[in-house]
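Justification of resources, computational component.

The compute hours requested in this renewal are based largely on the per-chain cost of generating structure records like the one below. Each record pairs the submitted sequence with a full structure-token output. That output is archived, and it is also reused by downstream analysis tasks.
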Amino acid sequence: MTTTTSATFTVRGFHCSGCSDNLAKALRNLDGVIRARASFDDANVEVRFDADRVSEQDLRDQITRAGFEAD
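The structure output for this chain reads:
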């Protein structure tokens, strides 16, 4: 059984829409991420994921690895 959940993070470090696109792609590369939508204008990222395969901390770590900061 899949435990699907979602989380929204405020992101610091976006300089353009390309940055938000790159972050969304980096998050989608994580096993268990179903959808990731990042917004340069809103400075956030919304992630839908399988909580049995990936945690919110894993998402935060991936955001950091991609060169951004998450609140």
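The helical segments are 17-28, 56-65. The chain has one domain: 4-70.
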